[in-house]
Prior knowledge:
The structure is a homodimer.
Chain A: H1 5-11, H2 18-26, E1 42-44, E2 50-60, H3 72-88, E3 92-102, H4 104-125, E4 128-136, E5 142-152, E6 167-171, H5 176-184, H6 195-206, H7 215-221, E7 222-227, H8 232-243, E8 246-250, H9 258-265, H10 270-280, E9 286-290, H11 295-304, E10 309-316, E11 320-324
Parallel strand pairs in A: 3-4, 8-11
Antiparallel strand pairs in A: 2-5, 3-5, 6-9, 6-10, 7-9, 8-10
Helix pairs in contact in A: 2-4, 3-4, 5-6, 5-10, 9-10
Amino acid sequence: xxxxxxxxxxxxxxxxxxxxxxxxxxxxxxxxxxxxxxxxxxxxxxxxxxxxxxxxxxxxxxxxxxxxxxxxxxxxxxxxxxxxxxxxxxxxxxxxxxxxxxxxxxxxxxxxxxxxxxxxxxxxxxxxxxxxxxxxxxxxxxxxxxxxxxxxxxxxxxxxxxxxxxxxxxxxxxxxxxxxxxxxxxxxxxxxxxxxxxxxxxxxxxxxxxxxxxxxxxxxxxxxxxxxxxxxxxxxxxxxxxxxxxxxxxxxxxxxxxxxxxxxxxxxxxxxxxxxxxxxxxxxxxxxxxxxxxxxxxxxxxxxxxxxxxxxxxxxxxxxxxxxxxxxxxxxxxxxxxxxx
Amino acid sequence: xxxxxxxxxxxxxxxxxxxxxxxxxxxxxxxxxxxxxxxxxxxxxxxxxxxxxxxxxxxxxxxxxxxxxxxxxxxxxxxxxxxxxxxxxxxxxxxxxxxxxxxxxxxxxxxxxxxxxxxxxxxxxxxxxxxxxxxxxxxxxxxxxxxxxxxxxxxxxxxxxxxxxxxxxxxxxxxxxxxxxxxxxxxxxxxxxxxxxxxxxxxxxxxxxxxxxxxxxxxxxxxxxxxxxxxxxxxxxxxxxxxxxxxxxxxxxxxxxxxxxxxxxxxxxxxxxxxxxxxxxxxxxxxxxxxxxxxxxxxxxxxxxxxxxxxxxxxxxxxxxxxxxxxxxxxxxxxxxxxxx
Lengths: 341, 341
């Protein structure tokens, strides 16, 4: 981690020296590849027979996390959203580079908490800090992580690869992330959810679950996959666009969480409310396609692993993504992501 | 490159769709590893027998580049500063991830120019865009690149590795970058430099030269190396700190550029002025150590390659970094970087 002493010093008035902050809070997070964060680059000796997967997600204060929340929560969320991309490709995380830009005056207070969030998350998922850059900014904080993972050579599950007739599956539940975002941004959620549901919403927002538990299922059965970051319809549309098929989802099959269902049922238009939840994205987890003939095997594998996995539709001829109601009528869907015009 | 459609859309009011911008300007920069910037991750199949080098440098508007300059120049400078780290380790660049945060209203105008700067630079140095993230920010632009390179297994030249008695060498010339920064930030440079020198200053600032030409010399002779980003004294102090030696530089040997010399000689305190130039950093190029017994071989190699390489000092017992005048008296040096306290 080259930490640009001179440049930072220009704008910083820290009681604790910026190098002390790095040395004290970030260096302990470094894996051997990070060379104690004291060289110009990290060094990775890739394992034979493995491909590397590389992803970048950036958070801007006030857009991707609430203003002023520079602590453990945002660090966990940032690292987890990156992990989610690696998980959706059937990969295993290795290490990451961190670019951290925050107001100099906030660093001494917040970097310890931010580092704590990284520490918790990297311990849980088995990856380490390899390097990065810390800069002062007179404006919104920007945090960016480039995460590197590995996957058996040729084993990356791409977005391209689905074929007509494939089943569409989704991991976990949908909807909590949108309500979690409402919660952390102090929007009113009406009716007031139960305490249990509130916890689920908040957890879904700050600590989304990358789908590593589905790694073997993806590796064995998936023809295409993506993580659920843009809303389920947009995410399947991305797969469709690259696979030259039409993703057809059954609206009633979408696995909304209990909390999200309770909320939606109490709204004036429950269908539209569920659409809003499903369009928000940020649920993470994974949506993937698999051959219809593997259906029972996929069901069995998920049951064996005690994983929630739901069959939500199938790939048909055509393009884009459509959602059908219980009578097979298409439900108008406002936003389907960039691939669907 | 997952481009967060939804999130960007929240804050963006572009005439041209953000995906069109990416597709039109960034996708053509993508190497095969980037999967047309349409998957969740890039995929690299590392070559056998090679280590990977990973580095991150981030630029904040108003700190690392002048306010409002979002175009080709800043893109070139950003990519080149990252390339400089790979070059200093005797590596070869492969590809990079880009995190770009700029005001939404500026994107349509500036992204084409920014992409052009990337294109020029990646063509010159042989690397490609693999992915990244584009986000809108209501504040200073933040550009961050994580660059991945490769080096023969075990061939990375570390900062650690110098021994007592080693020579210290520096590539190229010093001083132009500081005067280039003064120039682009509209500070008065007095006396007015010649047109030729002005061009050299501006070029040094916007298009610093990564030391790839020195790759074989580094690989064959260097015991330790770092790129010159924090000022020569700070950079050798970093090597000292990890090598447990004392870098001893001969002030009169420092290879200031002709333009920098002309400027310094005309100042009221030429020694102090040269120190300022050398402390500013951003000269890039490489400083490295090599065995004294290799001195003639290093000289000969540089001459053969027609490269400017200067012997500027040697590693002695002790710690930190000192600079001696022509009578071997230590020159007081205000800033020596984080390793020297």
